[in-house]
């Protein structure tokens, strides 16, 4: 039976470090501020934003949600981003993705002040991550790496297979794993024989947003399985991995919920604090 990689335990270790940093700042009368930019009424984004506010507030970081209507003009969004860039009480900005389809996510990303760009969306930060020059990769890939590090799972020389090539999860995660000397394969919706590749994985990371995409026949016995997916099925939150069926095959596995997602939110708060030095 697989070892359960408990995201809440990883998050707890980070929360303690964040709290110590927040307290040190409070002693200097400084309060860190995180702004969450929410355009429209995407239910998942709203739930995620509320969870972030609760977490940040509990840790002593001031979190504000700046909400614009779904039909907000691009210039309105860019004006708000510039306002937050200039606001000295805001240290991190997180635009909730996906934006409504009429808005160009790349122009919003490029408008962010690079040093307040919590999810490394700005092209400068994305480029630094791709060249291995930044430790501020997007929060979800950092959460995956934090889970591996917490459980002393060394990826050096291992074959890591990622399913998903998004700019905020799959691609930056590939760079982080390469930085740790893993051999990385990135699969996506046009990959021919997905199972043939996943079965080769020492570390299998699913980030496709497809419930039960990964069944036990797609997992090499003894593999480490990291499930990034968050899907709603009949009112329940599930990942991309058929958890119960894969559990007896894998050596270690993250649950959903309580896995990567629990760590990602903590990474967002940590990233808002980055201008105050390392934790
Ligand atoms: P996305 O839709 O931008 O990208 C999905 C990727 O999966 C694409 O590259 C696509 O080619 C690939 N894909 C889709 N179906 C596939 C299939 N059948 N076979 C192979 N590849 C397939 O999504 P994203 O923003 O990268 O998020 C991916 C998933 O991770 C979603 O479920 C999302 O909710 C979740 N997510 C979780 C966290 C967390 O903290 N746990 C954070 C961000 C995203």
Automatic annotation (TrEMBL):
Indicate yes or no for the key word NADP: yes
| GO MF | methenyltetrahydrofolate cyclohydrolase activity; methylenetetrahydrofolate dehydrogenase (NADP+) activity
Annotated HAMAP family: THF_DHG_CYH
**Protein species of origin:** Sporolituus thermophilus DSM 23256
Q: Which reaction does it catalyse?
A: (6R)-5,10-methylene-5,6,7,8-tetrahydrofolate + NADP(+) = (6R)-5,10-methenyltetrahydrofolate + NADPH; (6R)-5,10-methenyltetrahydrofolate + H2O = (6R)-10-formyltetrahydrofolate + H(+)
Instruction: Please name the taxonomic classification of the source.
Output: Bacteria, Bacillati, Bacillota, Negativicutes, Selenomonadales
One Pfam family linked to the record: THF_DHG_CYH_C
Q: How does it assemble?
A: Homodimer.
- Biological process, per Gene Ontology: L-histidine biosynthetic process; methionine biosynthetic process; purine nucleotide biosynthetic process; tetrahydrofolate interconversion
* Name of protein: Bifunctional protein FolD
